[in-house]
Amino acid sequence: MTGIIKGTGACVPRNTLDNRELEKLVETSDKWIQERTGIQRRHIAAKDTAASMAAKAAKEALAQAKLKPEQMDMILVSTMSSEEVMPSMACRVQDEIGAFRAVCLDLNAACSGFIMAYATACAYIEAGLFQNILVIGSECLSNVTDWSDRGTCILFGDGAGAVVVTAAHGRGTIPVLGSDGTKGEALTLKNRKNQTPFSGPLTKEDLSPCYIRMDGQTVFKFAARKVPEAIEEVLLKNKLRKGDIKYYVLHQANKRIVEAVAKRIGEPAYKFPMNIQEYGNTSSASIPILLWEMQKQNMLHPGDNLVLAGFGGGLTWGAVIITWR
Q1: Cα–Cα distance between 195 and 208 in angstroms, integer?
Q2: What's the whole-number mean pLDDT along residues 259-279?
Q3: Residue of 30, 55, 117, 91 lying closest to 312 (CA atoms)
Q4: Nearest to 142 by CA among 22, 61, 59
Q5: Which domains does the chain have, with CATH numbers?
Q6: Which residues are designated catalytic?
Q7: What is the model's pLDDT at position 190?
């Protein structure tokens, strides 16, 4: 048995923040942002939360798959921006959609999270443990963005994407997944400072808000090197050639990174669809949102081979191959 994607869904907030509006918050410009990132605007949550967006995306994916919530055996949510530590976001989604049979689990691999979650779902299915799994990437990054830091606030947006992965006859593909914790300081998001009876009083620094911090050059160089390596490796492991691949669906972090990957592996730009101009970097939600858009635009047809590849904090990376059905 193998896992196949049977339905897609997405939820993005209605409110948008374009580059012109960002010019009023920090010293930047629309031209500067577009030249360096390709981003024109990003969607920012007002009333929605990461959990509510995840549930909305899940409902759409289920409707498209023509499956009921109670048919789900598992809900896997990839997120690094949940509003609460406990209960898990997957449990919040379960409650909202009525998937009372599902085992619920959150996973955090930052912007690589959807790839890791998808590979995990396929492993459960190939092991014969589950038949139907909801895989969701959902982020409310506006809550963890320092809007006075022009190096990061221009990049991130909010949104959720979901897929329903179901069991089907056939052989599964072999994923390529990796992590390098020695470079973890290149991209961080600190948590609250815990206080115990032995820790002493909290300092002003301990009480300061926690935001995403990034060494942009280090992350860029890492992604431009590691993603092509992962793509080449996943093709080799699955005995496929570049000519067998219809599209490379990459994490939408930066237009220049996607272009660098295409150039390095020697594939034409049209095989690398992008929507970063509209949504910015939505972390683990970016790949499922892009898949959802591609399906809506009738870009995907049965038999199409796709490479999905992500990279992010940890540092982490991953690539998988799917055949659209």
Answers
A1: 14
A2: 98
A3: 117
A4: 22
A5: 2-168 (3.40.47.10), 176-323 (3.40.47.10)
A6: 111, 251, 281
A7: 87
